[in-house]
Write a structure and sequence with these properties.
Oligomer: single chain
Strand content: 15-25%
Number of strands: 11
Radius of gyration: 24 Å
């Protein structure tokens, strides 16, 4: 199997119709491709079998998680080069991520297909990595299925998340004064910005939907004197948050529940924060989500909805969640364009008062998380699994690039349950958030 890298490079360029922008190092130690470029390391030809049996993103993801594929050199540069190839193809094909390998079925590429089969070895489908979510059954976004999806992502160990997120334990986009600010300062500034947008005052009642490890309710209770309820579907998050709250001496003002937003019955609240949670709701349930939060607010109460958004499609019915994200990161998660989110909040009765796009802030946040993970790599892999650590490294680095390239964004939408009188409670020049 001499010069496997050279044969793969030639094959890839024939199928893609363009020079390969990265270098390849194969299992036989052969190398091929542009000097000085990041290196795609194919540690085992099992990676090729994964691609043959699952062409496209899922096959690549399985190879990465299993350690059959790796990147040597600048991970961001490599992902940017490879993503650029895929996104360029998106303009000419309905399935850009899978099209290259499916193209092997064309008559003019039969020789290339035979070459790939010869390189791949035994025609046996490899077992998917243990970190992959197996096929799910039943309707989307039931209470049970949502709890299982949340558990897959968040119940991987509080110690692991502490390594990645740092002391703030905030798992959403920070708000940066400058790129040189610390992650802790940027996360504190984000929490304080939300409190100011909600116009929190002492004695008010706050609901934090998807409270994570309790950072938002802790900040709001400590700095603004509110009484707060935080809800999560993760048992591990709830345990951690309750411990932090007790240690802060705020157990009399903060309650943490393992509860779905659809199960809350003790309204009204003066304010609601939903920070990085709505991505789990799903488009078929979003109207229900918006209506539920509207009903939980008192007249005049405010909602701050902090949510990742995708770019709109010419035909929204063609939207599909990426296989890698769905199988390894956020099962059943779905993104919507910000315009649709605003429309559905309005349809539920809210008056939308402000929309702030902060996608560059998320790119900075993700790069910090990746740096934290890489700094503590051995410990992170020990706390979860090497495959799980590889999942997080890939998804956070790729997401950082997607925010930087405007493929996805993140927005804070401030909405009010404005009463019939029309008195919103907003000041004439609210944007200062003083």
């Amino acid at each position: 199997m001499a010069d496997a890298a050279g044969r793969l490079t030639k094959l890839a360029e024939e199928v893609l119709g363009t020079p390969l922008p990265v270098r390849i190092r194969a299992w036989d130690r052969s190398e091929s491709g542009p000097p000085g470029a990041p290196v795609l390391v194919i540690r085992h030809r099992r990676a090729l079998r994964r691609l043959l049996f699952k062409p496209g993103e899922l096959g690549l993801a399985r190879g990465w998680v299993a350690g059959d594929l790796d990147i040597e050199g600048d991970l961001y540069e490599a992902l940017d080069l490879l993503a650029g190839l895929l996104w360029e193809r998106a303009a000419t094909t309905k399935a850009p991520r899978a099209a290259a390998l499916r193209a092997l079925a064309r008559p003019e590429l039969r020789a290339a297909a035979r070459e790939l089969l010869a390189l791949a070895g035994a025609p046996v489908p490899p077992t998917p990595p243990a970190e992959e979510v197996r096929r799910r059954r039943g309707p989307l976004h039931t209470l049970r299925r949502d709890k299982e999806a949340i558990s897959h992502h968040y119940d991987v160990g509080n110690d692991f998340y502490a390594l990645v997120l740092g002391p703030s334990m905030v798992y959403s986009c920070a708000y940066w004064e400058s790129p040189d600010a610390s992650l802790e300062d940027a996360q504190r500034d984000k929490l304080d910005l939300i409190c100011r947008k909600l116009a929190l005052k002492e004695g008010q009642r706050l609901l934090d939907v998807g409270c994570g490890w309790g950072s938002m309710v802790l900040h709001a209770a400590r700095e603004y004197g509110v009484r707060a309820v935080g809800i999560t579907l993760s048992e591990e998050q709830a345990t951690f948050a309750r411990k932090r709250i007790a240690e802060a001496g705020l157990a009399d003002r903060i309650e943490i529940r393992v509860q779905d937003y659809r199960e809350i019955k003790d309204e009204p609240f003066d304010a609601i924060s939903s920070i990085g949670m709505a991505e789990h709701v799903g488009r078929d349930r979003y109207a229900e989500y918006a209506s539920a939060l509207y009903a939980l607010l008192r007249p005049g109460g405010r909602l701050l909805n902090h949510q990742i958004a995708r770019r709109p499609l010419a035909d929204e019915e063609t939207y599909r969640v990426d296989d890698f994200i769905d199988r390894y990161v956020f099962p059943d998660g779905e993104l919507a364009p910000v315009g649709r989110t605003v429309a559905q909040l309005e349809e539920a009765g809210f008056e939308v008062r402000d929309v702030e796009g902060i996608r560059e802030h998320y790119a900075l946040t993700l790069r910090q998380w990746v740096a934290n993970l890489e700094k503590h790599w051995d410990e992170a892999a020990r706390l979860t699994s090497p495959g799980r650590a590889r999942v997080w490294r890939l998804y956070m680095a790729a997401s950082a690039l997607s925010f930087e390239r405007n493929r996805i964004g993140v927005n804070q939408v401030l909405a009010v349950r404005t009463p019939d009188s029309g008195t919103s409670g907003a000041r004439l020049r609210e944007r200062s958030w003083g």
